[in-house]
């Protein structure tokens, strides 16, 4: 038996070979202490492990980001009466939309009159906070004007309008040469859009809407339907398509390069008027 610190094993040629350090069955206390010291340096302590970053809110957050953690499924019915999930919209849009449809279609000046800043701040905090993001919100204590204002603010604070900037010019092209004076003072006396090929324009917008990213398409169709409901009762609420377009155009169809160009956002408002008035042609 060799006198060295390591035992030996017999190789094929009959000569003893030293076992590589660390291959013995029982390490020494010094080896264990050294290993543990090095392991402790490498391994993160449990209380130092990084927690996953909290989900951001929804206001000022891109639609594609917030929809992942704050969404509501939208169901439709087929010709045989069976429901199916059409898509998803932000919780804040669905909650406000349902509440406003139920309580505010005959309220004069809805979307135009201000709510309570204190209550609107509370609503924003509710819709901005995980894990529910307002899904269980109770509207008791809030008015329809609070809901209308928080809905408008959500759209206006999107980093990009519902119709993405890359589609901006294409959505305006059909009406570019037929711009009317439909959007003037908010007196509810707007004219219809100038004469042009209506059927061709409908087909154009149908195609454009199919090309939108799915989340943008679903949200656009949802808000067009909502606005059409209020426009259909404009004799009571005084919110014509022209009035609604003037209010919602910045969050739906706008471009930062045209923020200071009144004739440009009037064209965008005319486009939105047309989309609201013909929204029943666009459900895909």
Short characterization:
By secondary structure, the chain is mainly alpha-helical. The protein has eleven helices and four strands; from the N terminus they run E-E-H-H-E-E-H-H-H-H-H-H-H-H-H. The strands form two sheets. Strands 1-2 form a two-stranded antiparallel sheet. Strands 3-4 form a two-stranded antiparallel sheet.
Report what the structure shows:
The chain contains 11 helices and 4 strands, in the order ββααββααααααααα. It is mostly helical and 284 residues long. The protein has 2 domains: 53-159, Orthogonal Bundle (Phosphatidylinositol 3-kinase, Chain A); 160-284, Phosphatidylinositol 3-kinase, Chain A (Orthogonal Bundle), CATH 1.10.555. The strands form 2 sheets. The protein has a two-stranded antiparallel ribbon. It has a two-stranded antiparallel ribbon with strand order 3-4. Strand 3 and strand 4 form a beta hairpin. Helix 4 crosses helix 5 and helix 6 (168-176) crosses helix 11 (262-277).
